[in-house]
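Two proteins follow. First one:
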Amino acid sequence: MTPRSQRADLDLAGRALGGSVRGVSDDLFAPVESLLLPGTPVHDPATFGPRGKIYDGWESRRRRTPGEDWAIVALGIPGELHEVVVDTAFFRGNYPPEITVEAARVEQDVDPVDSSVAWTVVVPRSPCGGNTENVYPVDDPAIYTHVRLVIHPDGGVARMRVRGIAVPDPRLLGGRIDLASLQHGGDIADCSDMFYSDARNALMPGEARTMGEGWENKRRRGGGNDYLVVTFAGPARLAWLDIDTTFFVGNAPGEVVVSARSPDGEWVEVLGRTRTRTDMHNRFRLPDLVADAVRVDVFPDGGMARLHVYGELTSATLSTLLERWHADDSEVW
């Protein structure tokens, strides 16, 4: 399995993973939900509304009393934070000169706005520039579920990205689950080509709404074939697999081969070369074996909207994940 420290970071707060705003002090000028929108901010200098200039981001009013403004975001997946990006694109005369980022770990039924929540400073009060991506490293191995962006004293922020490694709540991982899902600890360990879109799109929660929300490689003009390798949260017993080619009408794979990796590192073919069909769910039973990763070879190329690998994490895997989860904050959890 690829060590967590070697995996590329996810935007744990992104809307695609289920991130959401849980509270805000003020967003009179521009809605705080824009903080988590995908894509880069846009700007039209000529657009004005009844409350002033329209910005693609979050903007609070000019503060006339002591204090500062803040926004609380629930991460789509709990995780270990590595950096926070505060993007002030197009905020030139109304950006916050300083920011602080705090994080907390709370149960789902607790309101993070509640004054009893214990917040930990993960980015101390720091300068913030206007019309730029401000990147703040985080050196804290703890697992968090929420972050609070504090802007001193007020102003506008276009986007916030909270990058890190997903650490899903293992109490929700028992029974049959989609082992490949990012929400359940799956991730891309290797991929032959991501010319059109990121292979991680295939592991996102929910259904793809367009072809652009899946994984698509370029047209292969030479020999060989494209592939992706997906690791699980740990060893698991396989059940079945779904190669979802929804919206891939003329660019789905012609055929696929699926291999699984045993915990001792040996690869075994679990689905021989098989034809796949376009714009549909291609479902296949898998042998009853324990594996910690799968490799999907597509022939000769082609993409997919989603890849689902269903099975159950072993009891040993769940015990290991629970130990890591509780080790950070056993008093609360």
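Second one, unrelated to the first:
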Amino acid sequence: MTMARSKILAPVLIGIIGTTILIGLSYWQVQRLSWKEDLIARLEVRLSSPPVTLPASLDAEKDQFRRVTVTGRFEGAPGKQGYADAPFLTTHETLGTGYRVIQPFTLSGGGRVMVDRGFVPLVLKNEGGAAVRPTPAPTGEMTVTGALLWPGERADPPYGARDNVWIARDLERMAALFDARPVLIVAETPSTVPGGKWPVSVPLTVNIRNTHLNYAITWGLLALAWSIMSVVWVRKEMGPHG
């Protein structure tokens, strides 16, 4: 009896420990699923709410995706890197490869913020492999409506000093080049010149990947498989008469 117990001790312990860990991982993914669904719901509410005047004080967590309205002008003055905008290299599912034109916007009440004006094709922005062609903006005062975004992207360096091609929306560095607040508004309002087509506004949408349910099911099935294999192992160790 003692020998039989010692033979099954290892498979029993391994079975219990492994199954417990896998069930814990499955439960953790269920918790993450609840958190992600709540986050998506909150962001969708913000994007469907009427725009408000840009607050003087902002919180990246509380104000992410909040719709705002600002009045001012695109002055077109070059930043410290020598260019009037910060073109972020990207690919649009229907428009192809190009740039999101991010430019300082001088507020009528003073100060500057950064505005993502929209998408411009690569060929209309590049010259000699550098994103140096200007994207004209309307002259004079205008009102822009859009949603706040804190991209949280980092790269070192985030842009090429010679070609002005940005591979990361490093908001802090972008804003510093134009003496602007580290505030980015993704415009819904078109900012094309009369008769112009570009840039095309690409308003924010809630496009957050949510695969936690799949992971929860996967870990749960692995827990079931582990427990079954453990039972088979125990029965094998006990022998045909165990």
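SUMMARY FIELD: The mean pLDDT is 89. The chain is about 35% helix and 20% strand.
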